[in-house]
Design brief:
Pfam families: GHMP_kinases_C, GHMP_kinases_N. This protein has 319 residues and is of the alpha+beta class. The protein contains 10 helices and 13 strands. The protein has 2 domains: 165 residues, Ribosomal Protein S5, domain 2, CATH 3.30.230.10; 128 residues, GHMP kinase, C-terminal domain (Alpha-Beta Plaits, 2-Layer Sandwich), CATH 3.30.70.890. 35% of the residues lie in helices and 22% in strands. It is globular and about 60 Å long.
Length: 319
């Protein structure tokens, strides 16, 4: 299935950025899209064009070798069938996935593929679905592959910025203000962790005091975001639901968090279910020091990487 990418001038190319689910404080309810400050694109791309009939699928990119060898088992192929079924059309499409995000990284890898594919298909067929309807389709399909609907990667990947999940009857999420002077240092160590297995580490029930703390920290973080009170936001950026149970399952995470604090980073956390971590600062020099430390001490396998990022305000787009 891996092959050299050939793009005709009739091909539509869509990019969908990496995302942080949870953002530490907002388990399943907060997500943010990422953009490296060096201008590189951290996310999957999908190329789509007309085919004679059916779905013609191919895959390329750095992480394509980690995908199923049979294209029909790939979520982008299934996205195309899902979309055509929703439209009740028999049109043929050629779809190519450029897989640039590692699987099981905590960077919204599957969401990036799904969002890029459905966005590209919607553009290709003349935007039959508006923004909210397309977001609902993305959530529906993501739910098919993960077992339940979670928008905390899909929503920021599609819409950009930082998104608060609402799950209201007519609105799945809403953008909240972010801190433009924050740098988000992210590091992927090169290993993969199953989201399902990381969820199994969490308790079935939480103590009432933990539930109260979760609500307090999340609501205070959202309040601080609207007030643009960076000091309060940093103080509230705590994960009481997942990190206490997942930290020990991520090799080197606890040590990295301590070292990043010593370097002057304001706070750190787990991106999604890991193993990628994020760390926040408002000083670029400190961010670069943190990135260099992580490159030397946190990345353990070939393919690992670290980036200094801002939030990607654009979300998914044609490129």
């Amino acid at each position: 299935m891996n092959q050299t990418l050939k793009v005709s001038q009739d091909t539509l190319t869509v990019y969908a950025p990496a995302s942080m689910g949870n953002v530490g404080v907002g388990f399943d309810l907060l997500g943010a899209a990422l953009a490296p400050i060096d201008g590189s694109l951290l996310g999957d791309r999908v190329m789509i064009s007309v085919a004679a009939s059916g779905v013609e699928y191919s895959q390329t990119g750095e992480w394509a070798h980690k995908l199923p060898s049979d294209g029909k088992d790939n979520i982008v192929y299934q996205c195309a069938e899902f979309f055509l079924d929703k439209l009740q059309r028999q049109d043929g499409v050629t779809v190519c996935l450029e897989k640039n995000l590692p699987v099981g990284s905590g960077l919204g890898s599957s969401a990036s593929s799904v969002v890029a594919a459905l966005y590209a298909l919607n553009e290709h067929f003349g935007q039959p679905f508006n923004q909210q309807a397309l977001l609902a389709l993305m959530g529906e399909f993501e739910g098919k592959i993960s077992g339940s609907v979670h928008y905390d990667n899909v929503a920021p990947c599609y819409l950009g910025g930082m998104q608060l999940m609402l799950n209201a009857s007519n609105k799945a999420c809403a953008a909240i203000p972010s801190f433009d002077n924050w740098y988000w240092v992210i590091a992927y160590p090169g290993i993969s962790l199953s989201t399902a297995k990381m969820r199994e580490l969490l308790p079935q029930q939480y103590d009432k005091s933990v539930a109260i703390d979760f609500g307090r920290y999340l609501s205070a973080f959202v309040h601080a975001s609207y007030q643009q009170d960076a000091a309060l936001a940093v103080e509230m950026l705590k994960d009481v639901l997942a990190e206490p149970y997942r930290a020990s399952a991520i090799p080197g995470y606890t040590e990295a968090r301590a070292a990043l604090a010593e370097l002057g980073m304001l706070t750190s956390g787990i991106s999604g279910s890991g193993p990628t971590l994020f760390s926040v600062t408002d000083d670029l020099a400190t961010a670069e020091k943190a990135k260099n430390w992580l490159m030397q001490h946190y990345i353990s396998e070939q393919g690992g990487f670290a980036h200094v990022c801002k939030l990607d305000k654009l979300g998914t787009r044609c490129v």
